[in-house]
Amino acid sequence: MPTVNRNPNLFEVPAKTPKGFYYHQNFVSDDEEHELIREIQKIDLAPFKYYQFSGKRRTASFGWQYEFGDSEIRTAAEIPDFLLLIRTRAGNCFNIDPISLVQVTVIEYSIGSPIGWHRDIPQFGVVVGISLAAACRMKFRKYHRGRAKNSTRDEVLSIELQPRSIYLMSGPSRESWQHSIPPVKELRYAIMMRTLSERDLAQRVIDL
Predict the structure, then answer these.
(1) 17 with 173: CB under 8 angstroms?
(2) pLDDT at residue 38 is higher than 60
(3) Quick one: pLDDT at residue 72?
(4) Per residue in 17-36, pLDDT tens?
C-alpha cells in the first residue's frame, strides 16, 4: 500500500468523506486543463459496456482493461505520453510511485451520464481521479456484501469534485465504501489511474 502524503496544507476536504479519501483542488491550471481535454478528444473513445448494455459515458483504457462480469483483467494499449506526464505529477502529489499507477482510464461524461453505486474491482488497488471541464457530485455509502435492492440505506456522504481537482481513494474509502456519481449536468472528463492490488501484483510476479 502506498504511503499517502497527509500534509494538511496540501489537501482540503470541504465535506465529510470516508477515511482514506484525499482531495486537492487546482491540481492543474486552466491552460493545462484545456490541453488535456484537447488530447483526450483525439482518443478513440467507445461506449462503456456493462454486461450486454452500453452506458452513456465513453471510455478508453490503457495499461490494463477490464469488463464487468469478467474475473480477469487484460493488457491494453500503452499509456499515451500526455497521460504519462500527468501520471507522474499525480503520483508525486500523493507520494505514490507513478510507475505503480499501471492502469489509466479516460472517461467522457455526456450530459445526463451517471455512474451507479459500485466499488472498483478487487484486481486494482488505490484509485486516483482527475476531474476536468465540469464539476460533479461524488457520493459514498457503506458497502455491504449481498446488499438487497430495497435494503435500509446507510448514511450517504458526498463531495463536489471541482474542475481541475484530484482525489485519491485508498484504505476504507476504497474497500469499505461504494461510490456513485448522479447524472452530470454538463460535459465532463475524468482521468482515472489505478495501481494493481497487492494480491494481484504478487500473483503476476509469481507467474513471471
Answers:
(1) yes
(2) yes
(3) 84
(4) 999 999 999 999 999 999 99
| Of 130, 103, 13, 109, nearest in space to 58 by CA | 109
Residue found under cell 461524461: 109
Matching residue, cell 478528444: 41
| Short-list 159, 166, 94, CA closest to 130 | 166
Q: What is each CA distance from 43 to 21, 75, 155, 182, 186, in whole angstroms?
A: 29, 18, 38, 25, 20
124 residue type, one letter: F
Give the chain's length.
208
DSSP string, 112-164: T--EEEE---TTEEEEEEEEESS-EEEEEEE--TT--TTPPPPP-EEEEE-TT
Query: Strands 136-142 and 177-181, how do they pair?
Result: antiparallel
**Architecture of the structural domain at 26-145+152-207:** Sandwich (2.60)
- Gap between the Cα atoms of 162 and 26, Å rounded: 8
